[in-house]
Q: What sequence folds into this?
């Protein structure tokens, strides 16, 4: 049964007379406390926070003196006391509450300023188990939630970014805060504790290897409000989780316009794809449009790899996102800025390259400091009506040792290298995915079709178009290898690839008609390998 609410009025203006401070991040603390003190607000604070205030010459009372009890258990119990929580939760215009507060000598708090133990930062530094647990704040969230619940009287501030607006509100209202203001801060406070607990519960699930916890929460903090979402009539914002995986959320933007919703999505897809290729072994470039690669290539330099990635589909590359697995150098930068490009993301950029990109004011240049490890576990989340679909990130990676050769002909060493390359690219192409590749570069990509044969046809057409644009007589698919993200259910898709010029095929295998498909490959004299791993992507 729901708890009944006492019938009391929520006052609009509540004069601020007494404030409680308990912060781990002391940014802006002294300035706020001083301004409040100058307005005649009494200051109460927990141990170190109180010390900081007193050292700044401010007359603060230690919480321990208010409750008549010292901080105990190494700080695990500081504020968990009726003198504190009664002062926060009391409904001042409710006669029984007022009488009980008076009876026990409980004074109300009008402002509570709390920021929590840095649990997020602690786990981001890979702290040991005991350190992580000790950094789970208990008393802080209790005060935040209590204050937010009693926003009828209490102003709760959880973020130093809001200190200035507290002072502005007091100034505007003759030393009081408005109900509207307190309501908004209460909403923010509950969002803060929810995000904090989401991080704590997510950490537990991770370290205890609980794959499917009974409850799932995901938290993040607002990075920026976008001009619009996927389309101009949709509003959108970017929230960051604190995960340090190198990528679009952690990268530094050196120049260019604000990233749009689609830019962020595409840049993420681009950088995750290019990270499949070890920068110590090869330079790699991916050009992305609508979250699919239009071209991907490996080569000995970034400039060469870009050239080859562009050749794969020079028409679609217009307005694309370019991701590199090595430092952006001047030669590559010069080449990239020749066509309209939305975003470049790389682990780093040389000064000369930065200067070249600077000529294109709107072009966003991001440096991520490193590459994400494609093999590290993580989660992906998407919403459906009434639910969240949560799964492990596709960290599957096929190497030569995982392949099963199923045809009479064995792939040549060059074909093998291209097969692995094409399958790694196919992992990042929306299903049904068909990828033609040759000499470590894609030559035709078919993405996102409902039929695998249609994807094959599109990929083959792209290879023919690319050859024409490059002034070549023969399709780029001639002598290529082909990767399919899932098995060929019939021989037709494979035969289409053979017709286009492919000499070797990589696919998961596992169709009821594998025998038919293998027989067709043998009849065509091509080599085929099975990976035993599917890479659907939607
Ligand atoms: N246990 C408690 O009663 C308690 N009360 C407040 N805290 C936290 O202690 C921190 C501030 O403590 P100090 O001022 O002593 O540095 C704040 O982050 C606050 O959220 C507590 N610490 C952890 O739970």
A:
């Amino acid at each position: 049964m729901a708890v009944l609410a006492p019938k009391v009025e929520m006052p609009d203006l509540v004069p601020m007379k007494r404030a409680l401070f308990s912060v781990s991040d002391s940014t802006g603390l002294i300035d706020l406390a001083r301004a409040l003190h100058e307005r005649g607000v009494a200051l109460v604070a927990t141990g170190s926070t109180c010390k900081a205030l007193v050292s700044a010459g401010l007359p603060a009372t230690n919480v321990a003196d208010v409750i008549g009890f010292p901080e105990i258990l190494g700080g695990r119990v500081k504020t968990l006391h009726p003198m504190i929580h009664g002062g926060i939760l009391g409904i001042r215009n409710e006669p029984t509450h007022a009488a009980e507060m008076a009876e026990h000598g409980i004074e109300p708090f009008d402002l509570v300023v709390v920021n929590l133990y840095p649990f997020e930062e602690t786990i981001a530094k890979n702290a040991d188990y005991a350190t992580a647990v000790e950094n789970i704040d208990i008393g802080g969230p209790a005060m935040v939630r209590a204050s937010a619940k009693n926003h009828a009287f209490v102003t709760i501030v959880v973020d130093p970014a809001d200190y200035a607006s507290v002072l502005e509100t007091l100034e505007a209202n003759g030393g009081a805060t408005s109900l509207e203001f307190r309501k908004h801060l209460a909403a923010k406070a509950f969002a803060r504790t929810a995000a904090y607990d989401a991080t704590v519960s997510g950490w537990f699930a991770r370290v205890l290897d609980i794959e499917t916890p009974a409850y799932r929460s995901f938290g993040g903090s607002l990075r920026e409000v976008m001009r619009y979402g996927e389309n101009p009539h949709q509003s959108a914002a970017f929230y960051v989780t604190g995960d340090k995986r190198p990528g679009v959320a952690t990268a530094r933007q050196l120049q260019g316009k604000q990233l749009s919703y689609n830019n962020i999505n595409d840049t993420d897809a681009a950088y995750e794809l290019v990270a499949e290729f070890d920068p110590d072994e090869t330079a790699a470039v991916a050009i992305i449009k609508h979250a699919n690669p239009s071209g991907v290539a490996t080569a000995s330099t970034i400039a060469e790899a870009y050239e080859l990635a562009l050749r794969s589909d020079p028409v679609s590359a217009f307005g694309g996102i370019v991701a590199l697995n090595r430092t952006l150098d001047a030669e590559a930068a010069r080449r990239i800025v020749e066509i309209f490009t939305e975003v470049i993301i790389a682990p780093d950029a040389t000064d000369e390259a930065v200067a070249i990109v600077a000529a294109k004011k709107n072009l966003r240049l991001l440096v991520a400091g490193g590459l994400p490890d494609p093999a590290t576990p993580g989660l992906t989340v998407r919403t459906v009506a009434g639910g969240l679909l949560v799964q492990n990130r596709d960290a599957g990676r096929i190497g030569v040792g995982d392949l099963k050769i199923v045809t009479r002909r064995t792939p040549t060493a060059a074909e093998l290298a291209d097969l692995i390359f094409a399958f790694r690219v196919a992992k990042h192409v929306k299903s049904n995915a068909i990828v033609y590749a040759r000499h470590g570069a894609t030559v035709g990509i078919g993405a996102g079709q409902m039929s695998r044969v249609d994807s094959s046809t599109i990929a083959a057409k792209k290879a023919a178009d690319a050859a024409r644009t490059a002034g070549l007589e023969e399709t780029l698919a001639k002598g290529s290898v082909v990767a399919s993200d899932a098995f060929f259910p019939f021989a037709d898709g494979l035969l289409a690839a053979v017709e286009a010029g492919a000499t070797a095929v990589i696919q998961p295998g596992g169709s009821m008609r594998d025998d038919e498909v293998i027989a067709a490959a043998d009849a065509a004299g091509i080599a085929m390998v099975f990976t035993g791993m599917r890479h659907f992507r939607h």
Summary: The longest strand covers residues 292-299. The mean pLDDT is 96. The chain is about 35% helix and 20% strand.
